[in-house]
Write a structure and sequence with these properties.
The complex is a heterodimer of chains A (about 240) and B (about 180).
Chain A (H helix, E strand, L loop, with lengths): L3 E6 L2 E6 L4 H7 L23 E4 L6 E2 L10 E3 L3 H17 L14 H8 L16 E2 L5 E4 L8 H10 L4 E4 L6 E4 L16 H5 L5 E3 L13 H12 L1
Parallel strand pairs in A: 1-5
Antiparallel strand pairs in A: 1-2, 3-4, 3-5, 6-7, 7-10, 8-9
Chain B lengths: L3 E7 L5 H7 L4 H8 E5 L12 E7 L2 E3 H12 L1 E7 L1 H5 L11 H11 L15 E6 L9 E3 L6 H12 L14
The chains are: A alpha+beta (about 240), B alpha/beta (about 180).
Chain lengths: ~240, ~180
């Protein structure tokens, strides 16, 4: 039997089920918490830190996507401190790689770009690291531009959990972390890739795109993952 | 009342931000009732004048000449605006930043040329190691991102400043 818990989110008492995360409960109750690495239908990893919230009695901000609700918990989803930290997280994502929105296929349809706009990020306060990163064009239909990857791992989880192929992984540690397909093979040579393209649709930025699009032309079908998950639940 | 003095300049950029400034169309007449443009690509003045109220700078800081010009603009202006993504983030000019300057120039002027006289050094300023946002060289009072920033954002910024208010861009602008 599922245990019911009562939590308070931004002052409102909400009934939830034990095991649900703060983010799931908040979104189910039309409360907005921004997130980049979270995607409905996938497991949560707490990578992007955009969904940080305050929980009364906890001395630090916690990611809403990986923190389970608890009886009597009181959550604040927005405060000057929280917004300040979200801006830092966004700016660090921009500083880490070469996003150059002006020449991106996903400009205008990018979750990183629109979250920066929404948070009033007009500039980045940290020096850009300007790394030299490759672009993998070996796949016949898709392209992977490491310059625009934020390591959210949505593609990794989509491929492993939804398609069941597990072509993608994150290799390396810290600043050298990077996305790899099939133990460092070029994407086009990855024999387990089914070319289904769900990783491309799940990618929040222009890191993964279909070939053949120019600047601002790549729109994505972001509901693919959640739609598949819910249909499978109905079918089971 | 004296007119507000505006100076504009263009470092490592494409002039698109200046085009966007001109794209405020007839609203520029209202701006010029309250302000004079005393320096810029379309103005005869050879040197950035003293006592400028608002400096509008397009482009990344990419060469020694860029450093000199933006430092002069900063020293002689009360308020400095970084206009557009190149000035704000480095943008397209910064895509060379991972490549050593010598290699970059040789690739373009030697390997990339049919008839090569070598890397030009006469009459061109030396490139810096990287093309950087303005804020890494001078203090910036307002960042207006966009490639280019939309004309209505530029007009809003100018109108607010001419009314003596600090522009609040909020979520009206974005990168790219």
């Amino acid at each position: 039997m599922t245990e019911k818990v009562k939590v308070r989110i931004d002052g409102e008492v909400i009934a939830a089920t034990a095991g649900q995360t703060i983010l799931e409960v908040a979104r189910a109750n039309k409360k907005y918490i921004p997130a980049l690495c979270y995607m409905e239908g996938l497991s949560s990893v707490g990578a992007c830190r955009l969904c940080v919230v305050e929980v009364t009695g906890v001395g630090k901000l916690v990611p809403a996507c990986t923190t389970p609700v608890q009886e009597g918990q009181s959550v604040v989803t927005e405060s000057p401190q929280i917004v300040g930290y979200r801006k830092i997280a966004l700016e660090l994502l921009f500083a880490e790689r070469n996003h150059v929105c002006a020449v991106c296929v996903s400009s205008g349809h990018c979750e990183l770009q629109s979250l920066a706009q929404e948070h009033g990020v007009t500039h980045v306060r940290y020096p850009y690291s300007c790394p030299r990163l490759p672009v993998d064009t070996t796949h016949p239909r898709y392209v992977l531009d490491h310059n625009r990857c934020i390591l959210c791992s949505r593609c990794v989880r989509t491929c492993a959990e939804i398609e069941g192929a597990h072509v993608w992984d994150i290799a390396g540690r810290g600043i050298t972390s990077h996305l790899v397909s099939e133990l460092q093979r070029p994407w086009g040579e990855a024999t387990s890739c089914t070319s289904c393209g769900k990783c491309v649709q799940a990618c929040p930025t222009g890191a993964m795109a279909e070939k053949g699009w120019a600047v601002e032309e790549m729109t994505k079908h972001r509901t693919v993952v959640s739609r598949l998950t819910s249909m499978r639940e109905e079918g089971s | 009342m004296d007119k507000v003095k505006i100076g504009t300049c263009w470092l490592d950029g494409c002039s698109g931000c200046h085009m966007s400034l001109l794209d405020i169309d007839e609203a520029i007449i209202a701006v010029l009732r309250k302000a004079d443009i005393v320096f810029g690509p379309l103005v005869d003045a050879q040197e950035w004048p003293e006592g400028v109220d608002v400096a509008i700078v397009e482009g990344a800081v990419s060469s020694q000449d860029d450093v000199k010009l933006v430092q002069t603009a900063r020293a002689r202006s009360r308020y400095l605006i970084a206009l557009g993504d190149c000035a704000v983030t480095g943008n397209v000019p910064s895509m060379r930043n991972g490549i050593p300057v010598r290699k970059l120039l040789e690739r373009i002027y030697v390997e990339g040329a049919d008839e090569s006289a070598g890397v030009p050094t006469d009459g061109v300023p030396a490139l810096l190691r990287q093309a950087e946002p303005l804020r890494q060289t001078v203090k910036v009072d307002l960042h207006v991102p966009g490639c280019p920033p939309r004309p209505n954002a530029i007009l809003m910024v100018l109108s607010e400043l001419l009314e003596g208010r600090e522009p609040d861009l909020g979520s009206k602008v974005r990168f790219g």
